[in-house]
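Pasting as-is:
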Amino acid sequence: MSTTVGSAAKAPAPWKATFLEHINKMESPEFVFSSLAQAPKGSPVPYVPRARYCIFRSFWAELPENKHNEAPMNERVFESEMPTFTTDVRMLKVPQVFASSSGHAETNEQCQGSGGGGPVEAVWWVKATGTQWRVKGEAYVVGPDIEDGGESSGVRTVKSEVGSRMRVVQPGKEGEWSWAKELTGHFGNNSPGLRGEYQDNLFDTVLPPLPASIAALAAFNHGYTSYFVHIACYFNQDAYPARKGNGHGPWNWKVLMAASCRQAKSTRAPTAYTGRCEIPVATRASDAPQLCRQPGFLAPVVVTACHGSLGMSYNVTNTGPRFAGTFRAPPPGRPVNEAYDDKNLELGTQVKDLNDPIARKNFRVVIIKPEQVEQTDISDPAKARRQLYTFVPETADWKAEELWP
């Protein structure tokens, strides 16, 4: 269980609420994660930057509820302002945050457990608000050794550094909170395909997370005599240029069907024209996985149903079984003609066991401990500003400055 003391901070960071509000406006909470890699021999500098896109999962200790996640969950005993993402220990970003830390890991074996602490930056561009968010700090890796009975120096480092920024919100329950349970919760929040690769199933499909107000799924047929079904999906504007919408990137929303269906067992099946084909639309929302399998379309991502005067919806933000399978994929970045454990590692593997030994061996959660956060708002060129928030360890508070952009 936890040995976490917790942060001395009394309130959330002043930038947190706005950050989350902006993230919820993104079609997918992608960000650029930059770390430092050792420079090639002969280079005039010791390190060179490396960047890649990652997906923001949640702030550490604040993993959202997900009805598709079967993993046991911690109570919300702590809160934090430390962004997290999940990764594979075989990815280069993991040894980079170890090697650039004060511990200066030199071998791959030294990067297999918890630890790290190297300097990193994370950048989000929120087009809807014209705002760039930049988080500068240190990255720590949580691995399967976080509560294995013995505490390595890496485990102690993670619990000390990360724990110092975990704010207690349920005093007296700190000892009931488990690091290992939180790690498993993050694993369960990945779909079986990303625990093995994505599935073509609406209820488990990983799709760009949507704002909670519209990311709704109603899949019920509980004997009501009438109901209204509304289905929308992403469509590729390049494939269907005549149906371009408001220009939010190459993918856009398209309402495929809106129909009122009488009687739960009705055989009525209205259709929606997509520009290339007629798509039969079932009268039950639970039939939605059969829709939108045409080229240029993703699976339906918003399905709402109203039974009579009752409005019911469910949030679909899980990554489900399809993500977890990537942790049983062949070694990332290795030549495809190089020998590997092809009996246990395969693309497209579905992992439904929360304790799958191979997937869990490779699975990691990376926590970014921010030292500075920048919010640059250029939505109005005449009023553009940069807000700089710097963490002050002595007071466990944030110093705010307003800067020119």
